[in-house]
Write a structure and sequence with these properties.
Bound molecules: phosphoenolpyruvate, magnesium ion
Helix content: 40-55%
CATH class of the largest domain: Alpha Beta
Structural class: alpha/beta
CATH architecture of the largest domain: Alpha-Beta Barrel
Strand content: 15-25%
CATH topology of the largest domain: TIM Barrel
Length: 757
């Protein structure tokens, strides 16, 4: 059964539109359950009706035309209770409503299960039986499992077209479609989608429109020729070792590629307007599915061969295509299932207007980078049909976490106005650049930036940064294919320290592991966030740690602005051990005659145990820096990169606020400054609360800096304290946010929390 289930879900997931997805569901489920009918009703909330959207067994002419008002019929009983309903004779049910057009008078047995995605009812999946009988328990369990698995794929397909007024699937026009994700980086971006995807992954290939059909066909045939050549070479190479029978396998491979049906089908799809890679994806999937449905296991396995061939042709197509620079649109909106730092870096900055990632959350690295670059972004938009987005007009609302597909003229002009006002706001904030971040009652709160890229440095200075509060040293490690050497590291750190001197620069020691892997230092763990990361790795590898510490200390000679920061500390012993190694690195340099001075040493408080031992930590070091990104993740037990639970991830959760407040009190009790370097420091709403707590500095993405300065220059610490005490008494993050946003709007600072003035 598991196999059937998996195959149906896979097939639905690769459907090109809602109509196709639904027709696969009804056909396959009917078959798998040996039912007489399978139908899907989708909820149309605008019309308040359950619309029959697909059926295998009822009158096909009723599709799209028959619907039940919400509350009417047994379908509504399923929808209202959000539970399965299993009846031996549906017409006996008091809420049964007979619909003549469907031809359902012949059916008695009824099983309906709700289709629910992210707590929202999408529709009802129904199977019917001619005879009077209740469905067996395992059949109910099967349909419930099926529905739970299908919900995601259906939501995906629905976002592509939804239901049009006639009740028909609108296909894949996407006109006016809206997908909600999470606010990744503030701002509004209006432009054209450019889908990026990992290479050699056939399923990740998007559709792309073409103008030169002939060139595309030639490219495809060339790629096929290359793969045929490869296959022939393998055959020849192995001819000494294999029997004629075994060698025939290679001929079969070659034959598959030269078979008219495969090649002709791809060409036909290219002629219909899709590029070769997209046409190849659809054709390979279609062929593989035919084999997967076969009963004979030997033949079923041939599906794998077909997919393998498809991948090989794709690689050839891609290696030919790579020679040309990708044609980034004038106003590129980068879209992908998952967007990495290098994908972002490849787009010419002047063309990049927004970023949309189907995965991730506010504190995942793509969001952090987008904020650092000042590019509006939406993350965790998991209902976005990524593969169908290439070349579409999009609007990205990075405040609300919303993506508009092929927006209407009205939406477009509203957002154009908001984007213009936004640009005016940013230009206006430039006037604050040389003014201090000082509250009206005279409290100075130094604003630093979080960095990790050398290129950030000049933008940071241009935006009035008073120092670097967090330099993530893992970025230079991530973009190499081996650990950088001591001198190489020294040069990188020197550049940053010099550019900012005499302003302080906090260099964090290597924080890899968790969500920050190094390709050349793979770590495979079931629970990477609870595993070997940050200081745990560097203490286990003193040879790596000492090289980095020496490079940092050496880089600071003559500058005196270096501060060191230790990540992921969860035990006091780690602080003691790290201090010992810092002293050793210092000694070694002194012994070599280098004129180094001992830098200030700080610890990141980002693990709950460190919150409870903050005072003991503060006693041992010179400063504390709260990493609210990880602290939120660990306190709330919410993976910061998992879009499924991202709605629960919020640094404004009163428990997180309490923890931060306690750390500030503990640090101050030991006379040590406490700063914040998590993303919350750049959230104007949170900055007010942090001011109220009396934190000593804030470190944030450079793009957030002008907004935070603006808010600080408008709120007295006294008022911030009042707001904090109310926030600490709130029951949830939403209430805290609402309370703070109202306070900002009251002060005339509403444009800090939404688009426009
Ligand atoms: C944090 O955890 O808050 C932090 C600043 O570090 P990173 O986001 O690099 O884990
Ligand atoms: Mg962290």
């Amino acid at each position: 059964m598991l196999d059937v289930l998996r195959r149906i879900v896979q097939e639905v997931a690769s459907a090109r539109n809602l109509e196709q997805a639904l027709s696969i569901i009804v056909k396959r489920v009917k078959q798998a359950m040996a039912a007489d009918v399978c139908s899907v009703y989708l909820a149309d909330y605008a019309q308040r009706r359950h619309v029959l959207m697909a059926t295998d067994g009822l009158n096909p002419a009723a599709v799209g035309r028959v619907s039940l008002a919400m509350g009417e019929g047994v379908v509504s009983v399923v929808a209202d209770a959000a539970e399965p309903l299993n009846l031996d004779n549906a017409p006996d049910h008091p809420r049964y409503r007979f619909v003549a057009e469907t031809g359902e008078e012949y059916y008695h047995g009824f099983l309906g299960v709700p289709i629910i995605h992210h707590r929202k009812l999408l529709g009802v999946l129904v199977v019917r039986q001619r005879e009077r009988r209740k469905f067996a328990e395992d059949e109910v369990a099967f349909l419930v499992t099926m529905s739970a698995q299908l919900a995601g794929a259906l939501a995906h397909a629905e976002a592509s077209g939804g239901i049009n007024p006639a009740g028909q699937a609108a296909g894949a026009t996407f006109d006016g479609g809206v997908v909600d994700g999470l606010a990744g980086a503030p701002g509004v971006g209006i432009g054209t989608a450019m889908v990026i995807y990992p290479p050699a992954d056939l399923d990740a290939v998007p559709d792309r429109k073409i103008t030169d059909v002939d060139a595309e066909i030639i490219a495809f045939k060339t790629a096929v020729g290359m793969v045929q050549g490869e296959i022939q070479t393998w055959g020849e190479r192995l001819s000494l070792h294999l029997s004629a029978e075994e060698l025939a396998l290679f001929d079969a491979y070659g034959l598959m590629l030269s078979s008219g049906s495969l090649v002709d089908k791809v060409v036909e799809r290219i002629r219909a307007g899709n590029w070769a890679s997209g046409a190849l994806r659809d054709t390979i999937n279609e062929h593989a599915r035919v084999f997967e449905d076969m009963d004979e296991s030997y033949l079923r396995e041939r599906a794998g061969d077909i997919r393998d061939l498809g991948r090989r042709v794709l690689v050839c197509l891609q290696s030919a295509g790579r020679r040309k620079a990708p044609p980034y649109p004038e106003r590129t909106i980068l879209v992908g299932e998952e967007i990495t730092a290098t994908m972002l870096a490849e787009v010419p900055r002047e063309r990049l207007v927004a970023v949309v990632s189907a995965s991730g959350s506010r504190s995942s690295h793509v969001a952090i980078l987008a904020r650092a670059m000042g590019v509006p972004s939406v993350v965790g938009a998991d209902d976005l049909p990524v593969g169908r987005m290439d070349g579409r007009a999009l609007i990205v609302d990075g405040y609300r976490g919303r993506v508009y597909m092929n927006p209407s003229e009205a939406v477009r002009s509203e957002y154009t106005r908001l984007a213009r006002e936004e640009a005016e706001l940013v230009a206006g904030l430039q006037g604050l650049r040389d003014l201090p971040a000082e509250t009206p009652d005279g409290v100075r709160l130094p604003l630093y930036v979080n960095s990790g890229l050398i290129s950030d440095v000049s933008t940071s200075l241009a935006n009035g940064a008073e120092g670097i509060g967090l330099y993530r040293t893992e970025f230079p490690f991530m973009i190499r294919d081996r650990f950088p050497g001591e001198e190489e590291q020294r040069r990188i750190y020197r550049q940053v320290l010099e550019a900012f001197a005499p302003r302080p620069v906090v260099l964090r020691t290597l924080d890899v592991g968790g969500d920050k892997p190094l390709s050349y230092f793979p770590i495979s763990e079931d629970n990477p966030f609870l595993g070997w990361r940050g200081i745990r790795i560097t203490l286990d590898h003193p040879e790596i740690f000492l090289v980095q510490l020496r490079a940092m200390l050496h880089a600071s000679v003559g500058l005196a602005n270096l501060r060191l920061l230790l990540p992921m500390v969860s035990q006091l012993a780690e602080v003691d051990e790290a201090k010992r190694l810092v002293e050793r690195a210092y000694r070694e340099l002194i012994d070599k005659g280098e004129n180094v001075i001992m830098p200030a040493l700080g610890v990141m408080v980002e693990v709950p145990s460190a919150v409870y031992q903050a005072e003991a930590i503060a006693r041992r070091v010179d400063f504390l820096s709260i990493g609210s990104n990880d602290l939120t993740q660990y306190l709330l037990a919410v993976d910061r990169n998992n879009s499924r639970v991202a709605g629960l991830y919020d640094a404004l959760h009163p428990a997180v606020l309490q923890a931060i407040n306690n750390v500030v009190v503990a640090g101050h009790a030991q006379g040590k400054p406490v700063g914040i370097c998590g993303e919350m420091a750049g959230d104007p709403v949170a900055a007010v609360l942090l001011l109220g707590m009396g934190v000593d500095n804030l470190s944030m993405s450079v793009a957030s800096l002008p907004r935070v300065k603006w808010v600080l220059r408008n709120f007295t610490q006294q008022r911030a304290r009042e707001l904090l005490s109310i926030a600490l008494a709130c029951e949830g993050a939403d209430a805290v946010r609402l309370h703070l946003e109202c306070a900002l709007v009251e002060m005339g600072l509403g444009s800090l929390v939404r688009a426009g003035k």
